[in-house]
Each structure stands twice: as C-alpha cells, then as structure tokens.
Amino acid sequence: MQVITVESAVFGARSSVLVSDDGSCVVIDAGAGVTDSIVGLVTDRGLRAAAVLVTHGHVDHTWDAGRLSDALDVPVIMHAADVYRLADPFGTLGVLGSVGLPPHDPSGPLAQAIAASGIDPAAYAAPRRVEPFGGVGEPRSADTVLDLGGIRVVARHAPGHTEGSTLYLVDSVAFTGDVLFAGSIGRTDLPGGDDATMQRTLREVVATLPPETVVVPGHGPTSDIATELARNPYLARL
C-alpha cells in the first residue's frame, strides 16, 4: 500500500490517499481545497476510488468531503456520532466556529482561516452520500471492518476529541485524525470533547496498538507508537 499526502492550506489538515497494489484507493479526510489535487491524482494514475473516510466531523477535515464524494462518485463514511456536524460545520465548533452567532454563520475564526486561504466560507456544501457506522451515544463501539476495493480498513472508535473520532487502521499504519499527534494529542475543550473520555481512549485504544504501528495524524509529521509511548507526555503519564 502507498500513502500519498495532500495538505490543506487551512490549518495544514492532512488528507491521505491510500493506494493498493490493484489500483484501488480510498481517501482519509478531505480538508478545504484538496479536491482538485486528489481528483487529478486519481485520474492521472487511473485509480478506482472506493470511499472518502472521515476521522472526525470538524470542518477542517470535512470541508471538501461533499465535493470530493461527488467528483469521485463514492460515499463519505464516518462514525454515526459525528454525522450531525456535517449539517452545521461552524455552529458545532464552539469558540473556533460561530459560537454566539446565528446558526451557520461563517464569520468565526475557522471561517476566517478558510477565507484567508482563498476559499469562500459560505460555499460549504454538506455531503449528499453519507454512510455512518457505529452507534450514537455509545462510550466506545466495537471495531468496524470496511472492505473498500482492494483495501481492508479497521475503523476503531476513539472518542475524546469529538464523540465520533475514529482511528483507521490499515496494515501497520494508524490514521489518527486529531486523536494523536507527534508529541501531542487533540484538544478536548470544544463541543463534544471530553478529557476523561480522551484519557480512556489513549489508555485503552492508542497505547494498546503494536509499538511498530506508524502514526499518520491529521496535522503535522508522522511518528510511530513506540516513539509516542516513550516521548509523548500525554501517553507517558498514563
């Protein structure tokens, strides 16, 4: 499997294109402005796209999900607990979104960051094809196995940053979204975040991954579980 990164200009959110030996591909996260690059990659290499996976419902990871889903003619797949965020991407982000403003108001800090990248923050369109997995309100769901073309993905519920945050495990690689970064973890102070839940996720989900697992986060450099267990202060104190 090959992993190709396309980085959004908004908060440096990472979109990962997973390419199998048989030419199948899936996309993990779709940040603002990545559609043209990803569609060009798929077209130029003659790949067969199977899905757009979403690690969590924050709009810096979902802005282009609808556009990319339409362009590739594939569904958006994500945990059921975060699906509600797609309908109001700014209003569900608290201080980063439109807290204190009318619903859907695109004038908050994240909308301003999107505008600064040259994208109209009023141009957001929610995905039309969404296939949720897992259950809403569950503290943690069982693994969901997704067979997507030639790529087998294990979706592992990892709440704490958001209710529906998910790790996607493919071979010896973990796509961690905003749950785990190199040297840090995702914030828990936004709506749907919870520090106690995050601590449980770190202890029971992240720290139990094999040490050789490569960590591909939603922002920043890659790492591996062994390095994070040794050096990440949020894991070392567990």
Automatic annotation (TrEMBL):
<dbReference type="GO" id="GO:0016787">
    <property type="term" value="F:hydrolase activity"/>
</dbReference>
<dbReference type="InterPro" id="IPR001279">
    <property type="entry name" value="Metallo-B-lactamas"/>
</dbReference>
<dbReference type="GO" id="GO:0046872">
    <property type="term" value="F:metal ion binding"/>
</dbReference>
<feature type="domain" description="Metallo-beta-lactamase">
    <location>
        <begin position="13"/>
        <end position="219"/>
    </location>
</feature>
<keyword id="KW-0479">Metal-binding</keyword>
<dbReference type="InterPro" id="IPR036866">
    <property type="entry name" value="RibonucZ/Hydroxyglut_hydro"/>
</dbReference>
<keyword id="KW-0378">Hydrolase</keyword>
<dbReference type="Pfam" id="PF00753">
    <property type="entry name" value="Lactamase_B"/>
</dbReference>
<keyword id="KW-0862">Zinc</keyword>
<protein>
    <submittedName>
        <fullName>MBL fold metallo-hydrolase</fullName>
    </submittedName>
</protein>
<dbReference type="InterPro" id="IPR051453">
    <property type="entry name" value="MBL_Glyoxalase_II"/>
</dbReference>
